[in-house]
Amino acid sequence: MNISNIQAFTNSLPIVNKQQSTADSSFGSLLNQYIQDANGAVKDFESKSLSLAKGEAINLHDVTIAAQKASIAVSLTTQVRDKAVEAYQEMMRMQI
Questions:
Q1: Which residues of 32-70 are buried (b: 16+ CB within 10 A; e: fewer)?
Q2: Rounded to whole angstroms, how far apart are CA atoms 56 and 34?
Q3: Is residue 3 in a domain?
Q4: Burial 78-90 (b: 16+ CB within 10 A, else e)
Q5: Which residues, at least 6 apart from 70, have a Cβ–Cβ distance to it below 8 Å?
Q6: Owning domain of residue 29
Q7: pTM of the model
Q8: Is residue 12 part of a domain?
Q9: Cβ(80)–Cβ(34) under 8 Å?
């Protein structure tokens, strides 16, 4: 059994636990990055769906995957926003 190709496959996987510098690890910059990623996913879906509507050579499953990625990204961004607003409102209700 040849397992030499596994290393090439693992090198192409995204790194989840990236170490960020302390200057760039604020909640605002992290939230801004995720919003930009969600916006990129939505723009990718829009461009792929437009290409499909024009009749260009694009696979339907690519458009479907892009639609799901955009949907999940927007849903996650909305949930994070709701939790941030809820936390802000809870802090405003605190007695000092």
A1: eeeeeebeebbebbeebbeebeeeeebeeeebeebbebb
A2: 30
A3: no
A4: eeeeeeeeeeeee
A5: 38, 41, 42, 44, 45
A6: 23-92
A7: 0.65
A8: no
A9: yes
SS3 content of the chain, % helix, strand, coil (to 5): 75, 0, 25
Identify the CA nearest to 41 among candidates 19, 60, 68. 68
C-beta separation of 63 from 87 below 8 A: no
- Other C-beta atoms lying within 10 Å of the C-beta of residue 71: 13
Token pair, residue 87, equals 């936390």
User: How many folded domains does the chain comprise?
Assistant: 1
Give 13-45 pLDDT, tens digit per residue.
Answer: 556 555 555 555 788 888 888 899 999 999 999
Q: CA 10, CA 96: separation in Å to the nearest integer?
A: 52
Q: For residue 28, tell me if it sits in a domain.
A: yes
The reply to whether 11 falls in a domain is no
Q: What is the pLDDT of residues 67-79, one digit of tens each?
A: 999 999 999 999 9
